[in-house]
Amino acid sequence: MTERRKAPWVRLAAALWPVVSLGCGxxxxxxxxxxxxxxxxxxxxxxxxxxxxxxxYRPPAQEIPLEELGFDFGSDDAPIxxxxxxxxxxxxxRRFHAETFPTLMKxxxxxxxxxxxxxxxxxxxxxxxxxxxxxxxCAGEQGRFASVSYRLFxxxxxxxxxxxxxxxxxxxxxxxxxxxxxxxxxxxxxxPRARLRSGIVAGRRLGVRGTPHFVVDGVPVMGARxxxxxxxxxxxxEAEIAKEAGVGAEPSGREPxx
Length: 258
Prior knowledge:
The protein is of the alpha+beta class. Helix content is about 45%, strand content about 10%. The chain has helices spanning about 5-15, 90-100, 100-110, 130-140, 145-155, 155-160, 165-175, 180-190, 195-205, 225-245, and strands spanning about 25, 70-75, 80-85, 115-120, 210, 215, 220. The strands form two sheets. It has a five-stranded mixed sheet with strand order 2-4-3-6-7, with helices on both faces. Helix 4 packs across helix 8 (about 180-190). It is globular. About 40% of the residues are buried. Mean pLDDT is about 80; it is low at about 1-20, about 25-45, about 50-55 and about 250-258.
């Protein structure tokens, strides 16, 4: 991405969002479904499995590059690039994936306008989310990430408070067509460990302090913005791209979303 394209986009981003909490931060960080640490369920897969020091671990330089992390949706040639950092235990992430992402997928990602990368960011606030992340990453090895990820968010209330969430995870995996034996082997061997740890490190380097957090061609977007916000944001960016290319009309001049 060139500096020539970044500058107007940064101006657009600054105009398009207010300072308001629409995400899950450290601790419980405003999560709409937060609970106390004493009441949190215990999971067979915890953040301590990701590194010697949990989410605060500072690893050596040889981390997995961001472009090799997560799961990609859309065309590699799309003019707009979005990286999403979300936590399966975060209520605002669930809201975004239930109310907003499906429409963005149909209207912007599948049409070739937006290339979207989903990266799991384990905030350490939700006891069962590391286990959910392991399930999603392992399902991804079988080409079933999208289906499992959607179901994990959709059924978040079913598994997030359980002391043993794996029966629900197994049901979700079965519905998504995941091979159960391969899934079990992947989890037992902790294959996603390095990728999930690198996702935490990459997010922190990019300033992620709560989820969901998005990076739109280098511009940070914090919180679960509504569909209307994203639609106007993408429309404004598309107008800037067309203007720079000398094709298409000038920006519409509509007021940015509040």
